[in-house]
Amino acid sequence: MGRGVTGLAPACLRASQLELFSPGAPGWPFGDFHALPGRRLCGRPLQIRQVARPGAGPEAAEGRGAGLSSLIMDPECSQLLPALCSVLADPRQPVTDDTCLEKLLDWFKTITEAGSSLLLLQENPCLLGLLCHVLKPQDLSPRVLAFSLRLAGMLAAQEDCFQYLQQGELLPRLFGEAGPLGGAAWTAPSVRSGWIQGLRSLAHHPSALCFLADCGAVDTIFSLQGDSSLFVASAAGQLLVHVLGLSLQGPAEGHPGLQTGDWPVCAQKIVSHIEESLRSAATPQITQALNVLTTTFGHCHNPWTQVLWVRLSPLVARLLEKDPVPAAHSLVDLLLSVARSPVLSSSSCGLWETLAQTLSHLSPTQAGPLALGILKLQECPQALRAQAFAVLLQPLTCVLEATAQAPGLLDSWDGTGGASVTVDTLLASKAACVGLLCRTLAHLELLQPLPQRPSPWPQAPLLGATVTILRLCSGSATPTSDAGGHLCAFLVGCVRVQRAALDFLGTLSRGTGPRELVTQVFAVLLEYLTSPDSSPTVLKKAFQATFRWLQSSPETPGCSDLDPHAQLFLRELLPVLPKRLCSPCWEVRDSGLEFLTQMIGRWGGQAGFRRALLASEVPELTEQLLRDPESYVRASAVAAMGQLSSQGLRVTPASPEHPGGQQKSLLAELLHILSTDSEGFPRRAVMHVFTQWLRDGHADVAADTERFVARVLQVASQDLDWEVRAQGLELALVFLEQTLGRPSSHCPYAVTPPVAAPPGPLAQALRPLCRVQLFEFAFRALFDCDRPVAQKSCDLLLFLRAQTASYSGPQGSGSVPEVASVEAALQRWQAGDQGQPLGYLEPEVVVAVLRSMDLEGLRGALAESSDRVEKSPQSLLQDMLATVGALGEDEADCY
Amino acid sequence: MKLYCLSGHPTLPCNVLKFKSTTIMLDCGLDMTSTLNFLPLPLVQSPRLSNLPGWSLKDGNAFLDKTELIDLSTVDVILISNYHCMMALPYITEHTGFTGTVYATEPTVQIGRLLMEELVNFIERVPKAQSASLWKNKDIQRLLPSPLKDAVEVSTWRRCYTMQEVNSALSKIQLVGYSQKIELFGAVQVTPLSSGYALGSSNWIIQSHYEKVSYVSGSSLLTTHPQPMDQASLKNSDVLVLTGLTQIPTANPDGMVGEFCSNLALTVRNGGNVLVPCYPSGVIYDLLECLYQYIDSAGLSNIPFYFISPVANSSLEFSQIFAEWLCHNKQTKVYLPEPPFPHAELIQTNKLKHYPSLHGDFSSDFRQPCVVFTGHPSLRFGDVVHFMELWGKSSLNTVIFTEPDFSYLEALAPYQPLAMKCIYCPIDTRLNFIQVSKLLKEVQPLHVVCPEQYTQPPPAQSHRMDLMIDCQPPAMSYRRAEVLALPFKRRYEKIEIMPELADSLVPMEIKPGISLATVSAVLHTKDNKHVLQPPPRPTQPTGGKKRKRASDDIPDCKVLKPLLSGSIPVEQFVQALEKHGFSDVKVEDTAKGHIVLLQEAETLIQIEEDSTHIICDNDEMLRVRLRDLVLKFLQKF
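Above: the input entities. Below: the structure tokens describing the complete assembly.
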């Protein structure tokens, strides 16, 4: 029955019905309309009781009732918690599902963030019991241990709770040497991760710092940076950053002395460790240190970071002296992070010099991301920008030189003399060559649209280089040097480079170029579109790039037709298109049709284009593709035919004798597809075309709009695909707008203030809507089992109600029985019995029904996520207990 | 080991390998490109064709006579790698005194027979009233119009063979299966391996006990109908002879099939006919399979497909019965049971019809628009000639070339001016250079030998460094009529020891794990097998004559001195000398060892790694004493 989206419990449905439709009520039970069939809404949402909490900050009370300053869990959950804790503490009942524990932690997090952890602990002693229990030597699962560590950390994030836990010496036993740290459980990565995350939550107040220092945790964190588990290692690095930030929050803030000697012991220890790592010969250690610094400078912009950078930058600079530069990727990340930091980039601490030095030391592959990062910076010395741009352009310069072309402007950017290194990289191996070129093209593509891109932008040489690369890939370039020969051998047939180059070529269409280069661009595009060797993905990119270039070609003055050169190109392109539309590969047919649709959309009205298109076999072939075996192709063919027909470009051999005769049959054919096609995509495409036709006043539609709308809505309402039904509502809205007039607001769904419409004409205006049975369609959609459809219908009806607000027609006069019967029918629909149609409705009845419905309430209910009941903590606790079979009722079963 | 290269056409190879006293011919392809110099043979006399200016009607097919380089009667065996590479077989087996055996797989023989049968049929059914051969005289030839006057060695061009010769040639073939080991005179073993190119196509391994030569000819790594290529067995080759790579390295077969289908669909949709000049076997199976999947989607279900060839029926049926030679997918179909190729269904549903020729049923069934597959791809003979004449005038029709063997422009030359569209979609599934470089990396032969065409980029695309074989060490190249000494020397030979002789051996362990024994035996060599037999017992001397005769046959068995091994520890040796009364012993170190000087006796003992010399002045007693002392430190066996 199409209830694919959400499950539906029958008992729940009955409950909601009783609530919604109280028998004998004179109208709709206003304000209670919050449940619908198809959505499980009867469960109890998370109930949060607000109670007073002494000492809670003002933010906790914000928006809450006066005097209630904290939140704790509801009684049902409190009751379930002890049982759950004992299950968790019992090694004989292992928790198999990690996600439950994660959800549980999420829940505790919301509670602790909203209220007092101390209170939570005091009201639920079982939690403390669990934390104490896991310390006993036993065969507890690593999951539960990790969970307990994280929970303890979460609770101890509040200082009062931290003190409370400290009284029982619980925290040192959990996180100190005596805890899992030294035990067998430590071998499990989840426990190590839990330990780190626990400490990460805990470290939020000065007392925590002392605790960390006392229990020697910092040294453990250092060692965990090199952990075998990547997750643990990364978390350790982040914890280090956090601890460093926390330790410097108080004293150093505002006093960024140049001496780190004044810093707290903990911070000094971390800095020394980083220094030591940077001096190390082992790349992994250097990487760890660089990553910690990257995170620090990326997240923290306090003045102390400047002190830190001044102290560490010489060590970082020393890394550049090594060959090869160790941990180059991390180094690039760090330098960019420093350059982006407002505190650091404004100061004169040799950053730009370091960046320049790094650019010249790194290999071309490594330097690319750094160069791009530098060019993206808002503030940066011009010389450095020039150097970065030169690095980025080097591979393309090499390509131009290898094919004996003048590098043009690219050459003027090249001031670093690193070209030979780039050539070496390009010629080292196929993988290196392809990798470097793809990355370079991708970087330049990212850079091109940015306002801070280098100026003057070397548009012409870039175009030349990209065209050359594409020619090398297709084997049509003639390299004159050995290097060119090698490049050609590497690149011939390389799909990766072809895709990257075509993407970039498309991006370059935003700028202009000299006429002969643009001619070359079109020539190479045509070569790709014609070549039988172009892979389907390459072909798609070639189509996209072609469209962009055609779009950017200058229009003929006076009329908005294509310029003569583009028209010439089009004349060569159109014979290629039929071949592509006949390709045995469906992806090719599909991208050919997409391209065609775009083209018609853009130039369908232009005489030159129309002539060329009509002279080709394209329109005829497109129509044949409506019967393609591949649904994607059918969908694209539907879109293309819709466009062709809208523009009057459909070839109708019999048109002189029977004007419009064939056109009618396209409407019939599309209707046929809508009602019979087994796949959703073509049907959706038909709905889009129909909506567009209605909007544009397509001749076939305009001939008998009401009949058209009625038929389409009838077919769409029975469709199994929710997107088709939703699109049906879109079509209905267009019809509604056309009948009642456009809403004054830009947003079609916004509730507009009452329009002063005289009653008579409005009833008149509503009558066509009634005739096409738009209301039946909309009401059915309102109870649709797919939420987006119901939401859309709700919005549409709200819009309609606003339109009819001023309507003061014969309300209630003699039509009450009819209204009641409609309401009864809607109740049945809501119950899932949608068999009986409403039949023809009088405008007055519709208005009355609309007024009696709580559409706002419904909209609110629909806006809520459908799985919020399943997400409730109570449900979670019950589920967890049920899986280990510890619920009370199961115990009763034992007797 | 030598390789005689008799063909200049890399995809129609003909090489002779001399290896361990055997002479093995590797393939005998027939280069038919010279037929392009001749006028088409129409089924009906065509005044247009016979009056073409610049063309002369001459007879026959071409075949390069190979006898100058090597006497073909000495060839012991011919190994055939696929049915395209055996088309010259009758010329060799019937006219050169060849008395050996030909080895080929069953599909190769059967389909090869079909190709030859078709060729003979095409030629014989249009007998010419007159034939000329005087023009081959060099003085006359140079007066002829181009390109005939420029053709080289026309004297070696031959008439097409007859069906009788074909049958006789094929009767000399012995059928083999993949991985079957065939002994050639006990000297070498040859094994066919699947090459993945065509039904029954093979690569060959030619190996002795210590040497391995792989012959790779016409192989494919693409997933088409034949069994996939066996690469693993090619490993550890000393020499890999590589021929028969793709003729169109720039055309990707997938792209070409796409091009073929879309052009076919476009033509037929517009009411035109499509002509596909092709061989009766091979790529046509794959094309029919593609079309089987494509026609419904392209709305071509009602278009008839005609396959016209004297052997069309046999070809389509043969393809279905060689299940064991097909790829895995097609093999499994047989067990369902279903025909492995979908053309069976096309025939059943009447979408594909086949006819032996234009005459008869075809003329009554024929309806247009249609697609016709027919031969010969050279457009010089066969039913294709008729269709070219019939359809050439209309621009609605299209001829699509899929076979890469002939230049389509040259093939079309006598039909000009031509209104019909021409599409060139050469489909060659044989290895391209990227695949070759992967194959060589995988197989790692010590040496690669290939036609010279593969060692440089094609002349028309001299910048395409990727279109050549790139391997280390660089491949050795050969050209037509060249003899190549293959770059390795045979070092070892396997010899068997008779059990009773082996029993009598007494091995001595001279190093841990290494034992030695001396053998005295008679070496018997027969059929390239070597056997060590026990020496005959010394016979009692009887009559002088008899004894003499016996000594002729059996070598004298002298009592051999024992062999010595080990080294002499100088210090201990000196001690031993002193113990035996030699005083005043001096030791000097030399570059190669030591010199022990017995000053009193004026004697030198030179001890080196592999020799010891005692130099004393005519004192034989002393020498023998010293020798015995030395021998004490050495092992004897």
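Note for the figure: The longest strand of chain B covers residues 188-194.
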